Write a sequence for this structure.
């Protein structure tokens, strides 16, 4: 059997893309998921704060996932669980997906279009290299989240958290609620990497100190963690001698960032963007490989699941258009990040596929107050977005109407942070 | 009295300012939607939070079931609520929205399941 659209990953991105592709006329859609259930990372995110934009109510992660899983079931979209995707090959009109599961062993699945929705994984301590041993008691925040929320296993009692990403903040509150004592959250940068609401709700509510411009310089303990040395850093992020402080603890959680999971993408030869660590995508989330689309955290790390779902709708629509031969591939615009902006997604726009507007997602490089984000083509200012506060932790979404873009024949759209005029 | 606060009703996190007027009413600025002022006034008069946590579940694929308070509860009673919730053991099957604890701490607020778990 040849599928129309195969979705690699059954998280919120994969579920929303599958639903959209099916609704748009793709008949044979299949979701492949390596876990024992659909829902992706949302199954362990039991906290509330999901879906306010999509459903206009505040849901927990599992509730948000369940709404999409229900849609998949209502549309009778088949899915395979406990099924690991190993590889993807481009054979021109068809792609072959190499997968393995216990029931069928090794299989090759053929499809006209593919949507990549593998999400991301956490950076680990090895990746950041703190001196000391690697005793038990050192976890990534996401692993601890899975242990506590799904397996019911408490990693420890006296806790230090390195990194103020959202997962770290959420886990500071979660461990406190379950009776642990969180001594501090240490953040290398002079600002937090988490959403403001998480700092208020997870740290301030429980008087947990956030030590900005602090890092861990040594991990103590050989078999079990005994403590960490924490020190202050200067503007160049160098440790300031004499500021070291020993904090006894039995648990260290690392929340030092996420990396898109793109081994399959890279091996297949899809062109990547080293700013996002994801594929270069167009307005419908098409990649450099015709018929291959990507959306969600595998493209760039999202802080809000609502934007993941929004992006997945584009990819699902794009895949359905592609199999009908309706997807235009001629690139009208490319995008680039100017001063103050770290990256922009999508990196390319084919205007004939655009319906009413294009939403550009981007992240700023540092904290800005009372600035604007401007979009230029050449030296022509085409759109402006005002923000009271721009934070690296909070993705900017910048919508430009089709009418505005249509005034320009082609070119490069450059996004920059500038003074408000 | 004037107070700066961050709205936490949704992840946008608007920076708001709330001011108590002489006549006892409040004026809120900086919000993007109407949920902001409601939250700000509540924070000044009776701060509350939804508590998402887990309870023990038997005969399901996993040993823990995620739950939440159906409504926000007073901030001061969070740990009392946790002590009660941690005593509960439920049996699969459970559906999202099923009441796991009725009338938590006499607050008139239920604790409900936030996912469906089949028997296995
Ligand atoms: C801890 C945490 C807290 C968050 N809190 C919030 C919040 O409060 N509010 C909010 O709106 N958003 C929040 N988010 C963000 C949001 O949940 C994520 O952005 C979203 O889940 C990403 O969806 P995804 O489908 O791209 O990835 P994922 O959910 O990671 O799904 C990817 C799926 O692909 C599968 N997969 C990967 N590789 C393979 C393979 N080779 N073969 C088969 N399957 C594979 C994985 O098993 C997984 O199920 C949070 C995220 C995290 C991690
Ligand atoms: S005011 Fe509205 S948009 Fe702003 S954070 Fe609160 S709920 Fe969200």
């Amino acid at each position: 059997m040849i599928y129309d659209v195969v979705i690699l990953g059954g998280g919120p991105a994969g579920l929303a893309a599958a639903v959209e592709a099916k609704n748009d006329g793709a008949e044979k859609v299949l979701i492949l998921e390596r876990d024992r259930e659909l829902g992706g990372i949302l199954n362990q995110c039991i906290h509330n704060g999901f879906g306010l934009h999509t459903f206009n109510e505040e849901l927990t992660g599992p509730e948000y996932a369940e709404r999409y899983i229900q849609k998949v079931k209502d549309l009778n979209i088949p899915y395979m669980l406990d099924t690991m995707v190993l590889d993807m090959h481009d054979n021109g009109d068809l792609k072959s997906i190499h997968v393995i599961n216990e029931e069928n062993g090794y299989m090759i699945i053929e499809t006209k279009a593919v949507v990549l929705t593998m999400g991301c994984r956490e950076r680990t301590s090895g990746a950041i290299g703190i001196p000391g041993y690697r005793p038990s008691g050192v976890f990534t925040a996401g692993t601890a989240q899975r242990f506590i929320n799904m397996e019911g296993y408490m990693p420890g009692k006296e806790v230090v958290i390195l990194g103020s990403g959202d997962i770290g903040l959420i886990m500071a509150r979660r461990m406190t609620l379950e009776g642990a004592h969180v001594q501090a959250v240490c953040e290398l940068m002079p600002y937090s990497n988490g959403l403001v609401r998480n700092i208020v709700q997870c740290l301030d509510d429980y008087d947990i100190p956030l030590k900005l411009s602090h890092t861990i310089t040594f991990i103590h303990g050989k078999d079990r963690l005994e403590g960490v040395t924490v020190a202050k850093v200067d503007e160049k992020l160098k440790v300031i001698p004499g500021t070291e402080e020993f904090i006894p603890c039995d648990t260290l959680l690392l929340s030092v960032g996420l990396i898109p999971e793109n081994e399959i993408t890279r091996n297949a030869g899809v062109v990547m963007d080293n700013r996002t660590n994801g594929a270069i995508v167009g307005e419908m989330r098409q990649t450099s490989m015709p018929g291959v689309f990507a959306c969600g955290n595998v493209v760039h790390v999202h802080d809000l699941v609502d934007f993941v779902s929004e992006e997945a709708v584009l990819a699902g629509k794009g895949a359905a258009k592609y199999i009908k031969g309706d997807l235009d591939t001629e690139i009208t615009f490319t995008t680039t990040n100017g001063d103050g902006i770290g990256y922009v997604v999508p990196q390319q726009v084919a205007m004939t596929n655009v319906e009413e507007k294009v939403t550009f997602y981007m992240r700023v490089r540092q904290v800005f107050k009372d600035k604007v984000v401007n979009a230029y083509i050449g030296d022509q200012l085409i759109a402006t977005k005002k923000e009271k506060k721009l934070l690296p932790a909070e993705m900017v979404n910048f919508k430009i109407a089709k009418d505005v873009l249509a005034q320009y024949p082609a070119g490069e759209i450059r996004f920059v942070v500038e003074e408000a005029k | 009295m004037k107070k700066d606060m961050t709205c936490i009703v949704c992840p946008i996190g608007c920076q708001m300012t709330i001011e108590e007027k002489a006549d006892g009413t409040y004026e809120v600025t900086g919000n993007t939607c109407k949920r902001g002022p409601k939250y700000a006034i509540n924070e000044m008069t009776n701060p509350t939070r939804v508590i998402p946590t887990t309870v023990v579940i038997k005969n399901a694929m996993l040993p823990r079931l995620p739950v939440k308070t159906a409504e926000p509860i007073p901030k001061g009673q969070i740990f009392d609520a946790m002590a009660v919730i941690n005593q509960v053991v439920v049996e699969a099957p459970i559906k999202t929205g099923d009441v796991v604890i009725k009338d938590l701490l006499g607050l008139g607020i239920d604790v409900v399941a936030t996912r469906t778990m089949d028997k296995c």
Remarks:
- The helical segments of chain B are 35-45, 78-85.
- Strands of chain B lie at 2-6, 15-20, 26-29, 48-49, 52-58, 64-69, 73-74, 89-91, 99-101, 111-113.
- Chain B has two domains: 2-45, 52-113.
